[in-house]
Write a structure and sequence with these properties.
Layout (H helix, E strand, L loop, with lengths): L3 E7 L13 E2 L2 E2 H12 L3 E6 L2 H9 L3 E4 L7 H12 L7 E4 L9 H6 L11 E7 L13 E8 L2 E8 L11 E10 H8 L5 H6 L4 H5 L4 E5 L10 H12 L3
Parallel strand pairs: 1-4, 1-6, 4-5, 7-11
Antiparallel strand pairs: 2-3, 6-10, 7-10, 8-9, 8-10, 9-11
Length: 245
């Protein structure tokens, strides 16, 4: 769709897995697997936003587009905003999808599903979530939870994001998946906001939008894609993709 741009931020610096965008998975760099799945979503042009010439080379060799961005961005949101102004300087794209560069098992249909709620102009940002099924994830502070009000069976209006077990009581808990789709105007507003109190406390950037009164809806999908942060994660990704996952 001409009104949508899919941007994938990727940088070489990583404290636990340096150079991970170029880590080999089944004969290809991880960033290429992500770009391919984003392209298979078939919702708009796919562009990798990076600060590394080596990543640009790898992405272009695979037939995808990459653009260079500054190396001093504080977040992936800032990086994709710079890239957006490079690839779409006239502001023709209405929607911007931010796919993290370290989720090589993300399902193309889930990327596509993230756009759905943006048909409602009252929704500023959308994201993805899945019901937590593993008991250990309920209390794991590395698993971000969405506290949300159900709109439909497969959609929540996000009220809060947290690392603790929430909400209290009987009912499902939701694992937040860090993929975002923005109304373009919402992204412009978001990157212009200063980091918020709860954002700094929870170390969750999306709380900046919530505190500013922006609306985030979450699409409930079937499963959580593997995020690659450690050497063990990388081996799991290799096993999953080798088996066709």
């Amino acid at each position: 769709m001409a009104d949508t741009v899919v941007l994938i931020p990727a940088r070489m610096a990583s404290s636990r897995l340096p150079g991970k965008p170029l880590a080999d998975i089944c004969g290809e760099p991880m960033i290429v697997h992500v770009a391919r799945r984003a392209a298979e979503a078939d919702i708009g042009e796919v562009v990798v936003a990076t600060d590394s010439p080596a990543i640009v080379t790898a992405v272009e060799k695979a037939g995808y587009r990459a653009v260079m961005t500054r190396s001093d961005h504080a977040s992936g949101s800032d990086r994709i905003f710079e890239a957006l102004n490079t690839v779409d300087p006239r502001g023709e794209a209405r929607y911007v999808v931010n796919v993290q560069g370290d989720i090589p098992t993300v399902a193309p249909q889930d990327i596509r599903a993230s756009l759905g709620p943006l048909a409602d102009p009252q929704v500023d940002i959308t994201t993805l979530t899945a019901v937590i099924s593993r008991p250990e994830e309920r209390t794991n502070t590395s698993v971000v939870k969405i506290v949300g009000s159900p709109i439909t069976e497969h959609r929540l209006r996000a009220l809060y994001f947290t690392r603790v077990t929430a909400p209290w009581g009987d009912g499902p808990l939701y694992h937040h998946i860090g993929l975002y789709a923005y109304q373009r105007a919402a992204l412009v507003r978001f990157v212009g906001l200063a980091p918020s109190v709860l954002e700094r406390r929870e170390k969750l950037e999306q709380l900046r939008a919530i505190e500013a009164g922006m609306r985030i809806d979450a699409v409930v999908v079937d499963s959580v894609p593997l995020g690659v942060d450690t050497p063990d994660d990388l081996e799991r990704a290799r096993d999953i993709l080798k088996s066709g996952g």
